[in-house]
Write a structure and sequence with these properties.
By secondary structure, the protein is of the alpha/beta class. About 45% of the residues lie in helices and about 15% in strands. The chain folds into 2 domains: about 5-200, 2-enoyl-CoA Hydratase, Chain A, domain 1 (Alpha-Beta Complex), CATH 3.90.226.10; about 205-250, Orthogonal Bundle (Lyase 2-enoyl-coa Hydratase, Chain  A, domain 2). A hairpin with a 2-residue loop joins strand 1 and strand 2. It is globular and about 55 Å long.
C-alpha cells in the first residue's frame, strides 16, 4: 500500500514507521488512519519483530494535531479524538514491541503517540509539552486523562498537565516519560541497537509481558496473575523456550520463530 502521510521502511526484523509531514509532523485523521493500517499490516508480517515510530526530520517527533484540518481547536473534532484513542489502544495492545524515537518537539497529540510506546528513546534535543489547558481544551486521546497517572503517579501527572510547561529531555527522564536520553550524535545508533535487541527476543514472551503489564493497570493484580499462568503454560511448552534454553547451554545466539 502507498501511504501519503507516513513512510514504512524495513531493516531485517525492525520496521521503521516515520510520521512524514515535516517539519512538525502534525497529526491529522489521515495520518492516524494510515498508522492504524500500517500496524495491521506489520502485525501480519512475520519478518517484523519490532516497530520504531519516529518523525521525519529533526525538528519534531510530532508537534500535535494539525489545527488546519479541524473546524475548531486541535483535538476538538470527535473523529480525531476517536481515531487518536484507537491508535493509543492499538500501540498499547500491539503484540510486538513498539519503540518511540523522539527528536525535537513532542507536543499534544504527539505525546499521545509517543508516551504509550513500550520503549521511548529521546535525543537530548527532545522537548515535551502537555499544555492543553492553556489552549482552553483538555488532552482527549485517553493518555493524559486516563493513563498518565498509571505511568507517572498522581503528583507528577498533575504537575505536568496543570502547569503545561516545556519539559526537557532530561526532565522527561526524571519523570519517567522517556526510557532513556542520549546525545543527539548517538541517537541513531542507540535507536538501532535497542530496536535490533528487541527484534531478537522471543515473540511470545514479549506479547505475554505486554498483555500482563497492561492488565495490572487496567484490570488489577488478580487478572494479571491469571494471564501469567495462562501464558506460562503455553510458553514453557513452546519451541522457542526449548530453543532459548538450548542456545544458552550451547553458548550460541538463539533463533526464535514465534512458535
Amino acid at each position: 500500500m502507498t501511504f501519503e502521510t507516513i513512510q514504512v521502511d524495513h531493516d531485517e526484523g525492525v520496521t521503521t514507521v516515520t510520521l512524514n509531514r515535516p517539519p512538525f509532523n502534525l497529526a491529522t485523521p489521515e495520518l492516524v488512519e494510515e498508522l492504524m493500517t500500517a500496524f495491521d499490516q506489520l502485525e501480519a508480517r512475520a519478518e517484523t519483530r519490532a516497530v520504531v515510530l519516529r518523525g521525519a526530520g529533526e525538528r519534531a517527533f510530532c508537534a500535535g494535531a494539525d489545527i488546519g484540518h479541524e473546524k475548531g481547536p486541535a483535538g476538538e473534532g470527535r473523529g480525531l479524538r476517536d481515531a487518536g484513542r484507537a491508535l493509543v489502544d492499538r500501540i498499547e495492545t500491539y503484540p510486538k514491541p513498539v519503540i518511540a524515537a523522539i527528536r525535537g518537539w513532542c507536543i499534544g497529540g504527539g505525546t499521545g503517540i509517543a508516551w504509550p510506546c513500550d520503549i521511548r528513546i529521546a535525543s537530548d534535543t527532545a522537548k515535551f509539552r502537555a499544555g492543553d489547558v492553556y489552549l482552553g481544551i483538555i488532552p482527549s486521546w485517553s493518555v493524559g486523562m486516563v493513563r498518565l497517572v498509571h505511568y507517572l503517579g498522581r503528583n507528577r501527572t498533575l504537575d505536568l498537565l496543570l502547569l503545561g510547561e516545556d519539559i526537557s529531555a532530561d526532565r522527561a527522564l526524571e519523570l519517567g516519560i522517556v526510557s532513556r536520553v542520549v546525545p543527539d550524535a548517538d541517537f541513531e545508533a542507540e535507536v538501532d541497537r535497542v530496536s535490533k535487541r528487541l527484534a531478537s527476543g522471543a515473540p511470545l514472551p514479549i506479547q505475554a509481558i505486554k498483555e500482563a503489564v497492561r492488565a495490572q493497570c487496567r484490570e488489577g493484580v488478580d487478572r494479571a496473575a491469571l494471564l501469567e499462568e495462562a501464558w506460562a503454560s503455553r510458553i514453557f511448552a513452546s519451541k522457542d523456550a526449548k530453543e532459548g534454553m538450548s542456545a544458552f547451554l550451547e553458548k550460541r545466539t538463539p533463533t526464535f520463530t514465534g512458535e
